Amino acid sequence: MGFLSWIVMGLIVGVLAKIIMPGKSPEGIITTILIGIAGALVGGFIGSLLGLGTVTGFNIGSFLLAVSGAVILLFLYGILKKK
Question: CA–CA separation, 18 vs 48, rounded Å?
Answer without folding.
Answer: 24
